[in-house]
Amino acid sequence: MARPSSQTILIPLSAPDGPGPVAEVLSTPTETTSTSGGLNPAIADLADVELHAAGQKALDAARQMAPGSSGWRLTRANRLVPQLTVANSSSLRGLSGTNNKSAELGLLLGLVLYRRKLRFDVVAVTGTISKAEWGEVSVGPVAGIAEKCAALVAWLEDRREVPRSMAFVLPAQDNQGASTQLRYKDALEQLRKRATDRGTVLNLLFVEQTQDAIRLLADRRMPLDRREFVARAGLFAMILMLSFLGMFGHWFLSPTKLAFDTVEWSLGPDPQSPLAVRFDRNLGETRPLTPCFGPDQRLQIGFGEHLVFRVSLIEQGWLDRMLPFFDIAVIILGEVSPPMVFSGASLPSTDRLSPRPDGSQGFGAAIPIAPPSEAMKLVILVRKGLSDRSDTLGTRLQSRYHETMQGEHRLARLGALLAAEPGDMLEFDFRAIPGRANCEISG
Length: 443
Prior knowledge:
By secondary structure, the protein is α+β, with helices and mostly antiparallel strands. The chain is built from eleven helices and 19 strands. Strand 14 and strand 15 (340-343) form a beta hairpin. The radius of gyration is 42 Å and the shape is rod-shaped.
């Protein structure tokens, strides 16, 4: 990105015998960090024309101004900083140091507007400044405004080429509390007439606060140098990344809600799962069976039938739809049979993790039931992430299985091991039986 060019601030000065010269102060963005004779590089060149005291006061005020009001960046490392130089310093040497007071406002504006695009070709400034309080810097009166107007008239007459537009910033009140615009009406009108004769449009700006001058003189936008653009882009990317990590972390740590859902059946209402189904050879299709419960209130499923279920993942937010990453483990426990562990990818007759027409996420399976006759438990574990824990779960369950005697105690101990696993858990008790003579096919 191109570096902004220098800006010129005109500061009319006074002389012992009347109008003095006009200091042409250049405000140039620079990367210099070196000092000159112990002086701050931003104002070191002002010492040659007895304006260093005014420059130091302006520098202190600029550092204390509110961060959004001036765009001040002098104290930030690796950034362009303003450097004030006097283009016509040779014609100003030998002037009295009394000009320091009236140059304060002009030097301050040179420091804080050094990277802004001005609305005028040339800006002339006179005025004192007070100490910054709460980020506000007040503009104070100066003496000799008529002489300063005459100095600007002489500056316009001496130039071969004049600017098309020019602003003259003055304090709203003089040193006696009167309106500057009214008290010096004649001198200001003569300056305006001479500017018009030379082809320059003059704008008189009477201000009480430095921020008023900034608002009237410069665009609100500040161009960014290449380093600052890269720094801001990097900061934005970091904030974006941290926001994403925060959202992802919140999603990852939030619980997953599970619920048994209905399974689709084309010949009637969708039955609630888990349920038993049987393949009807006469019809050539699988049909749900009327639930049969034994004395222990477990659903009874005959050998050769299937335990069918579908589980829905109840969404907790929009990230559940955008990040459908779930580690699914389905476990079949028996009081006699060794445990069977299926991952989400290895479920038998599964519709895998898929959305339904209503947008809900879910998965299902059909587990074949085989001898022996025993009490059994279906356990479903779901946690967020991409890892597959089915193998490690299988190893731990097999170890616990061999350590425990068969029967209800074995089911309880294996179930307790699974209940300690992270994530959400669903379980369903049933019993495998040889046949279902007392149950009829539904539908």
